[in-house]
Structure formats: C-alpha cells, structure tokens
Amino acid sequence: MTTAGTPAGPGTGPLRGVRVVELAGIGPGPFAGMLLADLGADVVRVDRPGGPGLGIDPAYDVTNRNKRSIVIDLKAPDGPARVLDLAERADILLEGYRPGVAERLGVGPEDCHARNARLVYGRMTGWGQDGPLADRAGHDVAYIALTGTLGMTGRPDEPPVFPANLLGDYAGGSLYLVVGVLAALHHARATGSGQVVDAAIVDGTAHLSAMIHGMLAAGGWQDRRGANLLDGGCPYYGTYETADGQYMAVGALEGRFYAEFLRLIGLDDLASAHHDLTRWDELRERVAARFKSRTRDEWTAVFEGTDACVAPVLSLREAPHHPHLAARGTFTEHAGLTQPAPAPRFSATPTSVRTGPALPGADTEAVARDWGTRAPLNDVPAPDAD
C-alpha cells in the first residue's frame, strides 16, 4: 500500500479549478462527491446540524475524503441564502432529496439558476424526478429489484443474492450522476448554459444491463437465475469452495483458457464438456470435488502465473495485501485509514488522497475565504475529532 501525504485544499487532478457544492445526504450522493473530489474538484459539503439520519462516525467516512465541510441549517431563515451564495460561485451542485424538497427549501434548480445560469444541478434519487414511485422512500435493494438486475443474481433454487449496495447506489447511481454532471459541465462551458441532471438509480442500473438485454433478445440469455454463461449457470464461470472453507473464482470462458484450467486442475478428460450443456452438471460436480481437495492457498499457487483465469476470493481486509494490488497501489493509507485509492489514473494530472474525511463544519472559515462569500457560512462549532 502507498501512503498519501498531499496537503489539504483543491487537488491537482483533471478537475482542478472545478467547484462543487454537495448538499449532504447518504449513499450515492456522497460517493459521487468523493469521486469528483478525488479527481481534483474543490467539493464543499453542506452538512446539516445534527448530521445525517443514517451514517458512520464522520472521522471514518471515507466517502467524505478530499472534501471540505460547512454546516448550514436550510430551515433557518438565512439558510437558503447561504447555499445560494455558494451556488452562485459553483460549477456543479449535487443534491439527493426526494423530488420537490429542494424547491420547498428554496435551493431548487430555478432558485440556483437565477443566481448562476451556468450551474450544473445534479439530482440523485432512487426512483427519479417523475413517475408513480417518484415520491416514495426506498433503498438500493428495492431499486435494483424492479430493474430485473437483482433477480439475475444467485442460485436458481435460492433467493437472489444482495451485491451489498454496489450495484444500485454506486454503479447505477453515483457513477451515472458523475458522468451526467461532467457531460453537462462540458456543455455549460461551451454554451454558457447550465442544466438539470436527473440521475435515477433505476435508470442507471437498468442501463448497466444493456448487454444482457441484447443477449435476451437474441436468444442467448434465459430470463431466470443460474442458467446462463455469466450468472453462475456455467460451471467454468463461478466460485468453488476449497478444503479450508475458502473460495476460488473461475472465469475460464474461452477455449484456450478452459483447456489450461482443466490441465491445471487435472480434469483433461472433460475437454468435450466445454460447450455441451448436458454435461455441465457433471463438470460442476467434478470441478467442485477437485477444489475441495486442497486449500485456497494451495490452489492459488497452482494457478499462479497462468492464463487459466482463476483467482482466490479475498476478504476486504486481505485485498490490499495482494501482491498485484499492492504493486499498483490500488489501496492507500491516509491518517491511519486503509482505503481504495482514487481511480482511474491520469498520466498528466495525477490524483491522490489529500485529506481525510471532512468533519462537519470544520472548514467554514477557509471556504468563506476561498469562495469569497459575503458572510460566515455558519456559526455551528465543528465537532471534536474524537
């Protein structure tokens, strides 16, 4: 692992000079703000008094790294005006309220665009800004359930498997919000006109399944769990338990990789089962039995340096120490917190973890000075670091 030690403040990444206001929330909004901050943007998080209704100790919330924080009570008489002062000086604003809430608080798109016509106003929700469910509460699992993607995961005789909140909140939500606001920022700089970006988790998650829908239409995908090439139905694309209760992941799809896999696992006689679906059950049983004969580390050594497309399934604490990830610095350590390093990587404008998680209200004076606001942004004292 590498250790980042870059000074606080705006970064040196490709988004250096871009100003972002993030109205505090949980889940996909903060992650999107983190990604923009990792890329060098000056992200000011507007925290609410008392903090979010769901969250971890701010000192450990890695999704607030590389940001600065102020505290504003949007329900106070002067709260909206203080946010609008920031919006006037910003390039992007991110909010994750239910539809209509920002408008009722006085910081909706019309309010902000009246002060800054070039502003990109990014809206992060689960259901979107319109539709029958737009006003309903929800979380990741419900959003991905309706898109059909949750129903794709898991064994056919068991309930669907939850992919944590990575698929909906972060892949279908945060990443699409970031793509959207950066595309809109490009348009704003070319035309002088900002716009609203409606990033809905249901839309983004559905979009992620584009290839699968193409395969479904072509007859190359069955609309049921555990029956397809990439969903665990294929015996040479899945996971297998080892003798020590750990797991190995196998992805030997192509013919030459499949042949190498069989050779190393000692099952060359199953070469003809590659495309013979009638033999897949036999193949799965024999592969499972072989993997159960050795430990994960022993199998890792067998497949080391080969093109069999097999890897050990590591835990979150093990992953940073894998030789490949360690060599690349895929994980980093900052202020005692091990965390994924910023991604992707840039040859001319490198990124880094500059600061640890922003503590609510800790950057009030610095933001007021740097952004040139007319008055202190809040008078709520910053919490103690401990």
Q: Tell me the strand percentage band.
A: 5-15%
Shape: elongated
For the CA atoms, what is the radius of gyration?
24 Å
Quickly count the helices: 13
Biggest pleated sheet? 6 strands, parallel
Q: What is the straight-line distance between the termini?
A: 26 Å
Number of strands: 12
Structural class: alpha/beta
Give the quaternary arrangement of the chains. single chain
Provide the residue-averaged pLDDT. Answer: 93
Q: Largest sheet, order of strands side by side?
A: 4-3-2-5-6-7
Pattern of helices and strands: EEHEEHEHHEHHEHHEEHHHEHEEH
* Percentage of residues assigned to helices: 25-40%
Would you identify the regions where 5 or more consecutive residues have pLDDT less than 50? 1-8, 380-386
What can be said about this structure in brief?
By secondary structure, the chain is α/β, with parallel strands linked by helices.
Describe the 3D structure.
This protein is α/β, with parallel strands linked by helices and 386 residues long. Helices cover 33% and strands 14% of the residues. It has 13 helices and twelve strands. A six-stranded parallel beta sheet has the order 4-3-2-5-6-7, sandwiched between helices. It has a three-stranded mixed beta sheet with strand order 1-11-12. Strand 11 and strand 12 form a beta hairpin. The longest helix is centred in the middle third of the chain and has 26 residues. The chain is elongated and about 75 Å long. The N terminus and C terminus are likely disordered.
